[in-house]
Amino acid sequence: MSTALRPSACPGLLRIVQALDGGICRIKLNGGSISADQAEAVAEAAERFAGGVIEATNRANLQIRGIDGEHGALIDCLMTAGLGPSSVAGDDVRNLMLSPSAGIDRQRLLDTRPLAGQILATLQCDARMHDLSAKFAVQLDGGEALAMLEHPHDLWLSAVERDGEQRWAFGLAGCPTDVPASSVSLDHGHALVVAVLELFLELARPDQTRMRHLLAECSVDRFLARLAEHVPLIAIEDWQRKTGSNVLHIGAHPQRDAERAYIGAVPPLGRLDPSMLRGVAQLAREQGDGSLRFTPWQSLLLPGVHSDNTSQVIHSLEQLGLHCSADDALAHLIACTGSTGCGKGLADTKGDARQLAVLLQSHGHALNVHLSGCSRSCAAAHIAPITLLAVSAGHYDLYFLDAAQPGFGTLHARNLTIEAVATLLDDRSRSSLDA
After folding, report:
1. How confident is the prediction for the chain on average, in pLDDT?
2. What is the DSSP letter of 426?
Protein backbone atom coordinates (compact mmCIF):
# COMPACT_ATOMS: atom_id res chain seq x y z
CA MET A 1 0.00 0.00 0.00
CA SER A 2 1.39 3.37 -1.00
CA THR A 3 1.86 5.85 1.84
CA ALA A 4 1.40 9.06 -0.17
CA LEU A 5 -1.39 11.29 1.09
CA ARG A 6 -3.03 14.18 -0.72
CA PRO A 7 -2.57 17.49 1.14
CA SER A 8 -5.76 18.26 3.05
CA ALA A 9 -6.94 19.97 6.22
CA CYS A 10 -9.55 17.24 6.77
CA PRO A 11 -8.63 14.45 9.18
CA GLY A 12 -8.84 10.85 8.04
CA LEU A 13 -7.85 7.52 9.46
CA LEU A 14 -4.36 7.86 7.99
CA ARG A 15 -4.12 11.66 8.34
CA ILE A 16 -4.19 12.82 11.94
CA VAL A 17 -4.82 16.56 12.15
CA GLN A 18 -3.77 18.60 15.16
CA ALA A 19 -6.25 20.57 17.28
CA LEU A 20 -5.94 22.35 20.63
CA ASP A 21 -6.77 19.14 22.50
CA GLY A 22 -4.45 16.90 20.44
CA GLY A 23 -4.70 14.97 17.20
CA ILE A 24 -7.98 14.06 15.48
CA CYS A 25 -8.45 10.78 13.58
CA ARG A 26 -11.61 10.38 11.50
CA ILE A 27 -12.82 6.83 10.87
CA LYS A 28 -15.09 6.59 7.83
CA LEU A 29 -17.65 3.82 8.31
CA ASN A 30 -19.18 1.94 5.40
CA GLY A 31 -22.78 3.12 5.38
CA GLY A 32 -22.35 4.23 8.99
CA SER A 33 -22.17 0.60 10.12
CA ILE A 34 -19.63 -0.97 12.46
CA SER A 35 -19.44 -4.41 14.07
CA ALA A 36 -19.32 -4.88 17.83
CA ASP A 37 -15.71 -6.08 17.54
CA GLN A 38 -14.77 -2.98 15.55
CA ALA A 39 -16.50 -0.72 18.07
CA GLU A 40 -14.39 -2.28 20.80
CA ALA A 41 -11.26 -1.67 18.71
CA VAL A 42 -12.19 2.03 18.48
CA ALA A 43 -12.71 2.14 22.25
CA GLU A 44 -9.31 0.51 22.81
CA ALA A 45 -7.54 2.89 20.42
CA ALA A 46 -9.12 5.94 22.07
CA GLU A 47 -8.18 4.68 25.52
CA ARG A 48 -4.60 3.60 24.76
CA PHE A 49 -3.44 6.27 22.33
CA ALA A 50 -5.68 9.30 22.96
CA GLY A 51 -7.66 11.11 25.62
CA GLY A 52 -10.63 8.75 25.46
CA VAL A 53 -12.95 11.11 23.55
CA ILE A 54 -14.89 9.47 20.70
CA GLU A 55 -17.24 11.59 18.59
CA ALA A 56 -20.12 10.63 16.32
CA THR A 57 -20.02 12.99 13.32
CA ASN A 58 -22.73 14.52 11.15
CA ARG A 59 -21.65 12.25 8.27
CA ALA A 60 -22.28 9.06 10.29
CA ASN A 61 -18.59 8.52 10.97
CA LEU A 62 -16.48 8.40 14.13
CA GLN A 63 -13.64 10.59 15.37
CA ILE A 64 -11.04 10.00 18.05
CA ARG A 65 -9.77 13.20 19.69
CA GLY A 66 -6.81 14.06 21.88
CA ILE A 67 -4.36 11.69 20.17
CA ASP A 68 -0.84 11.82 21.54
CA GLY A 69 2.38 11.03 19.66
CA GLU A 70 1.66 7.33 18.98
CA HIS A 71 -0.03 7.95 15.65
CA GLY A 72 1.31 4.82 14.00
CA ALA A 73 0.15 2.51 16.79
CA LEU A 74 -3.35 3.98 16.75
CA ILE A 75 -3.60 3.65 12.97
CA ASP A 76 -2.35 0.04 13.10
CA CYS A 77 -4.95 -0.81 15.74
CA LEU A 78 -7.78 0.53 13.58
CA MET A 79 -6.46 -0.95 10.32
CA THR A 80 -6.18 -4.40 11.97
CA ALA A 81 -9.86 -4.10 12.93
CA GLY A 82 -10.80 -3.58 9.26
CA LEU A 83 -11.71 0.07 9.65
CA GLY A 84 -9.28 1.44 7.08
CA PRO A 85 -9.41 1.93 3.32
CA SER A 86 -8.29 -0.62 0.75
CA SER A 87 -5.85 2.00 -0.59
CA VAL A 88 -4.29 5.03 1.07
CA ALA A 89 -5.65 7.52 -1.47
CA GLY A 90 -9.05 5.85 -1.20
CA ASP A 91 -9.54 6.95 2.41
CA ASP A 92 -10.30 10.58 1.53
CA VAL A 93 -13.00 9.77 -1.02
CA ARG A 94 -15.06 7.23 0.96
CA ASN A 95 -17.80 9.82 1.35
CA LEU A 96 -21.04 7.90 0.77
CA MET A 97 -24.07 8.43 3.02
CA LEU A 98 -26.91 5.92 3.43
CA SER A 99 -29.93 5.93 5.68
CA PRO A 100 -28.96 4.56 9.10
CA SER A 101 -31.83 2.08 8.64
CA ALA A 102 -30.79 0.95 5.14
CA GLY A 103 -32.17 -2.52 4.45
CA ILE A 104 -34.29 -2.74 7.61
CA ASP A 105 -36.54 0.33 7.31
CA ARG A 106 -40.25 -0.52 7.01
CA GLN A 107 -40.82 2.24 4.46
CA ARG A 108 -37.83 1.55 2.17
CA LEU A 109 -38.39 0.90 -1.52
CA LEU A 110 -35.14 -1.02 -1.87
CA ASP A 111 -31.97 -1.98 -0.02
CA THR A 112 -29.22 0.48 -0.95
CA ARG A 113 -26.37 -1.53 0.59
CA PRO A 114 -25.45 -3.65 -2.47
CA LEU A 115 -25.05 -0.57 -4.68
CA ALA A 116 -23.22 1.20 -1.87
CA GLY A 117 -20.69 -1.62 -1.80
CA GLN A 118 -20.07 -1.24 -5.53
CA ILE A 119 -19.64 2.52 -5.26
CA LEU A 120 -17.27 2.31 -2.29
CA ALA A 121 -15.14 -0.26 -4.11
CA THR A 122 -14.90 2.02 -7.15
CA LEU A 123 -14.05 5.08 -5.06
CA GLN A 124 -11.22 3.25 -3.34
CA CYS A 125 -9.82 1.15 -6.18
CA ASP A 126 -10.22 3.40 -9.24
CA ALA A 127 -7.24 5.77 -9.23
CA ARG A 128 -9.19 8.35 -11.24
CA MET A 129 -11.52 8.90 -8.29
CA HIS A 130 -8.63 9.77 -5.99
CA ASP A 131 -8.49 13.23 -7.55
CA LEU A 132 -11.83 14.09 -5.94
CA SER A 133 -11.85 16.47 -2.99
CA ALA A 134 -11.93 14.97 0.49
CA LYS A 135 -15.28 16.76 0.90
CA PHE A 136 -16.91 15.53 -2.33
CA ALA A 137 -19.85 13.38 -1.21
CA VAL A 138 -22.56 11.08 -2.60
CA GLN A 139 -25.88 10.10 -1.00
CA LEU A 140 -27.94 6.96 -1.66
CA ASP A 141 -31.56 7.16 -0.50
CA GLY A 142 -33.70 4.04 -0.58
CA GLY A 143 -36.92 5.84 0.37
CA GLU A 144 -36.51 5.08 4.07
CA ALA A 145 -38.59 6.84 6.72
CA LEU A 146 -35.36 7.45 8.66
CA ALA A 147 -33.23 9.53 6.31
CA MET A 148 -31.18 12.71 6.57
CA LEU A 149 -32.62 14.71 3.70
CA GLU A 150 -31.20 18.12 4.60
CA HIS A 151 -27.46 17.59 4.11
CA PRO A 152 -26.35 18.82 0.67
CA HIS A 153 -24.40 16.31 -1.43
CA ASP A 154 -22.50 16.69 -4.70
CA LEU A 155 -24.58 13.83 -6.13
CA TRP A 156 -27.67 12.22 -4.66
CA LEU A 157 -29.70 9.22 -5.82
CA SER A 158 -33.18 8.48 -4.50
CA ALA A 159 -35.25 5.36 -5.18
CA VAL A 160 -38.59 6.05 -6.89
CA GLU A 161 -41.38 3.88 -8.23
CA ARG A 162 -43.30 5.02 -11.31
CA ASP A 163 -45.88 2.87 -13.14
CA GLY A 164 -44.71 -0.23 -11.27
CA GLU A 165 -41.06 0.32 -12.20
CA GLN A 166 -38.33 1.22 -9.74
CA ARG A 167 -35.50 3.53 -10.75
CA TRP A 168 -33.09 6.10 -9.40
CA ALA A 169 -33.99 9.78 -9.44
CA PHE A 170 -30.86 11.88 -9.03
CA GLY A 171 -29.74 15.44 -8.54
CA LEU A 172 -26.55 17.49 -8.43
CA ALA A 173 -25.29 19.74 -5.63
CA GLY A 174 -28.34 19.45 -3.38
CA CYS A 175 -30.65 17.19 -1.38
CA PRO A 176 -33.16 14.43 -2.22
CA THR A 177 -36.00 16.84 -1.42
CA ASP A 178 -34.94 18.97 -4.42
CA VAL A 179 -36.51 18.57 -7.85
CA PRO A 180 -34.46 15.78 -9.51
CA ALA A 181 -32.35 16.50 -12.57
CA SER A 182 -33.31 13.20 -14.22
CA SER A 183 -33.43 9.46 -13.50
CA VAL A 184 -31.92 6.14 -14.60
CA SER A 185 -32.96 2.51 -14.37
CA LEU A 186 -31.91 0.56 -11.29
CA ASP A 187 -29.42 -1.37 -13.40
CA HIS A 188 -27.63 1.85 -14.32
CA GLY A 189 -27.18 3.16 -10.78
CA HIS A 190 -23.48 2.34 -10.52
CA ALA A 191 -22.79 3.46 -14.08
CA LEU A 192 -24.51 6.77 -13.32
CA VAL A 193 -22.33 7.46 -10.29
CA VAL A 194 -19.15 6.61 -12.19
CA ALA A 195 -20.18 8.73 -15.17
CA VAL A 196 -21.07 11.75 -13.02
CA LEU A 197 -17.78 11.60 -11.13
CA GLU A 198 -15.71 11.12 -14.28
CA LEU A 199 -17.49 13.98 -16.02
CA PHE A 200 -16.98 16.23 -13.01
CA LEU A 201 -13.26 15.47 -12.98
CA GLU A 202 -13.07 16.16 -16.71
CA LEU A 203 -14.91 19.51 -16.60
CA ALA A 204 -13.89 20.99 -13.26
CA ARG A 205 -10.82 23.14 -12.77
CA PRO A 206 -8.54 22.28 -9.82
CA ASP A 207 -10.09 25.08 -7.76
CA GLN A 208 -13.62 23.76 -8.42
CA THR A 209 -13.60 21.06 -5.77
CA ARG A 210 -17.37 20.67 -5.35
CA MET A 211 -20.22 20.14 -7.80
CA ARG A 212 -21.76 23.49 -6.91
CA HIS A 213 -18.54 25.23 -7.99
CA LEU A 214 -18.69 23.59 -11.42
CA LEU A 215 -22.40 24.28 -11.90
CA ALA A 216 -21.80 27.98 -11.26
CA GLU A 217 -20.14 28.02 -14.70
CA CYS A 218 -21.43 24.88 -16.42
CA SER A 219 -25.23 24.68 -16.60
CA VAL A 220 -27.08 21.61 -15.38
CA ASP A 221 -28.53 21.15 -18.88
CA ARG A 222 -25.06 21.09 -20.41
CA PHE A 223 -23.84 18.65 -17.77
CA LEU A 224 -26.85 16.35 -18.36
CA ALA A 225 -26.35 16.48 -22.13
CA ARG A 226 -22.79 15.26 -21.68
CA LEU A 227 -23.92 12.70 -19.11
CA ALA A 228 -26.48 11.24 -21.53
CA GLU A 229 -23.60 10.24 -23.81
CA HIS A 230 -22.51 7.72 -21.16
CA VAL A 231 -25.69 6.50 -19.46
CA PRO A 232 -29.33 6.47 -20.65
CA LEU A 233 -31.31 9.13 -18.80
CA ILE A 234 -35.06 8.93 -18.21
CA ALA A 235 -36.94 12.19 -17.71
CA ILE A 236 -38.89 12.35 -14.46
CA GLU A 237 -41.72 14.74 -13.67
CA ASP A 238 -44.01 15.48 -10.74
CA TRP A 239 -41.96 13.62 -8.16
CA GLN A 240 -40.99 14.97 -4.77
CA ARG A 241 -39.25 13.05 -2.01
CA LYS A 242 -41.46 12.82 1.07
CA THR A 243 -39.89 14.01 4.28
CA GLY A 244 -39.88 11.81 7.36
CA SER A 245 -40.02 12.32 11.11
CA ASN A 246 -37.07 14.02 12.77
CA VAL A 247 -37.18 11.76 15.84
CA LEU A 248 -36.96 8.31 14.24
CA HIS A 249 -33.31 8.15 15.30
CA ILE A 250 -34.36 8.26 18.97
CA GLY A 251 -36.02 5.38 20.86
CA ALA A 252 -37.43 2.04 19.68
CA HIS A 253 -38.88 1.66 16.18
CA PRO A 254 -40.08 -1.48 14.35
CA GLN A 255 -38.02 -2.94 11.51
CA ARG A 256 -39.30 -4.71 8.39
CA ASP A 257 -39.09 -7.94 10.38
CA ALA A 258 -42.09 -7.40 12.65
CA GLU A 259 -40.42 -9.20 15.55
CA ARG A 260 -37.38 -6.92 15.50
CA ALA A 261 -36.81 -3.27 16.30
CA TYR A 262 -33.92 -0.86 16.22
CA ILE A 263 -33.21 1.44 19.14
CA GLY A 264 -31.84 4.92 18.57
CA ALA A 265 -29.61 6.36 21.28
CA VAL A 266 -28.00 9.80 21.43
CA PRO A 267 -24.63 10.19 23.18
CA PRO A 268 -24.54 13.54 25.01
CA LEU A 269 -23.68 16.10 22.31
CA GLY A 270 -22.35 13.32 20.09
CA ARG A 271 -19.56 12.24 22.45
CA LEU A 272 -18.85 8.76 23.79
CA ASP A 273 -16.12 7.46 26.05
CA PRO A 274 -14.52 4.00 25.75
CA SER A 275 -16.64 2.40 28.49
CA MET A 276 -19.83 3.71 26.90
CA LEU A 277 -18.88 2.35 23.45
CA ARG A 278 -17.84 -1.01 24.93
CA GLY A 279 -21.15 -1.24 26.75
CA VAL A 280 -23.12 -0.55 23.58
CA ALA A 281 -21.02 -3.13 21.68
CA GLN A 282 -21.84 -5.73 24.34
CA LEU A 283 -25.55 -4.94 24.05
CA ALA A 284 -25.31 -5.29 20.25
CA ARG A 285 -23.94 -8.81 20.69
CA GLU A 286 -26.34 -9.90 23.40
CA GLN A 287 -29.54 -8.18 22.30
CA GLY A 288 -29.07 -7.03 18.69
CA ASP A 289 -27.57 -8.32 15.45
CA GLY A 290 -23.96 -7.73 16.51
CA SER A 291 -23.61 -4.36 14.80
CA LEU A 292 -24.08 -0.65 15.44
CA ARG A 293 -25.13 2.01 12.97
CA PHE A 294 -24.08 5.60 13.42
CA THR A 295 -26.28 8.39 12.13
CA PRO A 296 -25.87 11.93 10.71
CA TRP A 297 -27.69 13.16 13.83
CA GLN A 298 -24.52 12.28 15.78
CA SER A 299 -26.28 9.33 17.37
CA LEU A 300 -26.34 5.55 16.95
CA LEU A 301 -28.78 2.73 16.26
CA LEU A 302 -28.74 -0.70 17.84
CA PRO A 303 -30.58 -2.85 15.24
CA GLY A 304 -32.05 -6.34 15.47
CA VAL A 305 -33.44 -6.13 19.00
CA HIS A 306 -36.35 -8.49 19.70
CA SER A 307 -39.49 -6.42 20.17
CA ASP A 308 -40.13 -7.93 23.61
CA ASN A 309 -36.74 -6.68 24.86
CA THR A 310 -36.76 -3.02 23.77
CA SER A 311 -37.61 -1.57 27.20
CA GLN A 312 -34.83 -3.57 28.83
CA VAL A 313 -32.28 -2.48 26.20
CA ILE A 314 -33.34 1.18 26.46
CA HIS A 315 -32.82 1.00 30.21
CA SER A 316 -29.34 -0.47 29.69
CA LEU A 317 -28.44 2.23 27.16
CA GLU A 318 -29.60 4.96 29.52
CA GLN A 319 -27.56 3.40 32.32
CA LEU A 320 -24.54 3.79 30.03
CA GLY A 321 -25.29 7.52 29.70
CA LEU A 322 -27.08 7.66 26.35
CA HIS A 323 -30.41 9.38 25.72
CA CYS A 324 -33.27 7.34 24.24
CA SER A 325 -36.26 9.67 24.72
CA ALA A 326 -37.37 12.32 22.26
CA ASP A 327 -38.55 14.33 25.28
CA ASP A 328 -34.98 14.76 26.50
CA ALA A 329 -33.76 18.27 25.69
CA LEU A 330 -30.09 17.23 25.45
CA ALA A 331 -30.95 14.67 22.76
CA HIS A 332 -31.90 17.53 20.42
CA LEU A 333 -28.89 19.80 20.87
CA ILE A 334 -25.76 19.73 18.72
CA ALA A 335 -22.56 21.62 19.40
CA CYS A 336 -19.13 21.81 17.83
CA THR A 337 -15.94 21.18 19.79
CA GLY A 338 -15.82 24.82 20.85
CA SER A 339 -13.01 26.73 22.50
CA THR A 340 -11.86 23.78 24.63
CA GLY A 341 -10.56 21.95 21.57
CA CYS A 342 -10.58 24.34 18.61
CA GLY A 343 -8.53 27.49 18.13
CA LYS A 344 -11.33 29.11 16.12
CA GLY A 345 -14.01 28.50 18.77
CA LEU A 346 -15.12 31.65 20.59
CA ALA A 347 -17.06 29.86 23.34
CA ASP A 348 -17.25 26.57 25.21
CA THR A 349 -20.15 25.34 23.09
CA LYS A 350 -20.38 21.89 24.68
CA GLY A 351 -20.51 23.29 28.22
CA ASP A 352 -22.99 25.98 27.18
CA ALA A 353 -25.17 23.38 25.42
CA ARG A 354 -25.39 21.31 28.61
CA GLN A 355 -26.42 24.43 30.54
CA LEU A 356 -29.04 25.27 27.90
CA ALA A 357 -30.39 21.71 27.98
CA VAL A 358 -31.00 21.93 31.73
CA LEU A 359 -32.84 25.24 31.31
CA LEU A 360 -34.95 24.02 28.36
CA GLN A 361 -35.80 20.80 30.21
CA SER A 362 -37.00 22.81 33.22
CA HIS A 363 -39.38 24.66 30.87
CA GLY A 364 -40.54 21.39 29.27
CA HIS A 365 -39.00 22.10 25.85
CA ALA A 366 -37.04 19.76 23.58
CA LEU A 367 -35.92 22.07 20.75
CA ASN A 368 -33.52 21.45 17.88
CA VAL A 369 -30.74 23.94 18.61
CA HIS A 370 -27.26 24.14 17.07
CA LEU A 371 -24.47 25.87 18.99
CA SER A 372 -21.55 26.88 16.75
CA GLY A 373 -18.30 28.27 18.06
CA CYS A 374 -17.65 30.13 14.80
CA SER A 375 -19.27 30.71 11.42
CA ARG A 376 -17.82 27.52 9.88
CA SER A 377 -20.67 25.43 11.33
CA CYS A 378 -18.60 22.23 11.64
CA ALA A 379 -21.16 20.40 13.78
CA ALA A 380 -24.06 20.76 11.33
CA ALA A 381 -24.03 20.17 7.59
CA HIS A 382 -27.60 21.50 7.42
CA ILE A 383 -29.20 24.66 8.81
CA ALA A 384 -30.90 23.94 12.13
CA PRO A 385 -34.25 25.50 13.10
CA ILE A 386 -32.41 27.48 15.80
CA THR A 387 -28.72 28.43 15.66
CA LEU A 388 -26.60 30.05 18.35
CA LEU A 389 -23.44 31.57 16.88
CA ALA A 390 -20.78 32.34 19.47
CA VAL A 391 -19.51 35.91 19.65
CA SER A 392 -17.50 35.58 22.89
CA ALA A 393 -17.26 33.27 25.89
CA GLY A 394 -20.81 32.47 27.01
CA HIS A 395 -22.45 34.85 24.53
CA TYR A 396 -24.25 34.10 21.26
CA ASP A 397 -26.17 35.63 18.41
CA LEU A 398 -29.53 33.89 17.90
CA TYR A 399 -30.79 32.90 14.44
CA PHE A 400 -34.03 31.28 13.31
CA LEU A 401 -34.21 29.21 10.14
CA ASP A 402 -35.58 31.19 7.21
CA ALA A 403 -35.58 29.68 3.71
CA ALA A 404 -35.53 33.18 2.24
CA GLN A 405 -32.33 34.09 4.08
CA PRO A 406 -28.81 32.78 3.41
CA GLY A 407 -26.60 31.26 6.08
CA PHE A 408 -28.14 30.47 9.45
CA GLY A 409 -31.37 32.33 8.66
CA THR A 410 -32.83 35.44 10.28
CA LEU A 411 -30.83 37.14 13.02
CA HIS A 412 -33.22 37.54 15.95
CA ALA A 413 -31.02 38.85 18.78
CA ARG A 414 -27.36 39.58 19.48
CA ASN A 415 -24.92 38.85 22.29
CA LEU A 416 -27.22 36.76 24.46
CA THR A 417 -26.17 34.77 27.52
CA ILE A 418 -27.37 31.16 27.72
CA GLU A 419 -29.90 32.19 30.39
CA ALA A 420 -31.25 34.90 28.09
CA VAL A 421 -31.45 32.42 25.20
CA ALA A 422 -33.45 29.98 27.31
CA THR A 423 -35.86 32.72 28.44
CA LEU A 424 -36.36 33.98 24.91
CA LEU A 425 -36.97 30.48 23.51
CA ASP A 426 -39.41 29.73 26.31
CA ASP A 427 -41.35 32.94 25.62
CA ARG A 428 -41.37 32.18 21.88
CA SER A 429 -42.59 28.61 22.43
CA ARG A 430 -45.36 29.76 24.77
CA SER A 431 -46.52 32.48 22.39
CA SER A 432 -46.68 30.03 19.49
CA LEU A 433 -48.77 27.64 21.61
CA ASP A 434 -51.12 30.45 22.60
CA ALA A 435 -51.55 31.67 19.02
Report:
1. 95
2. H
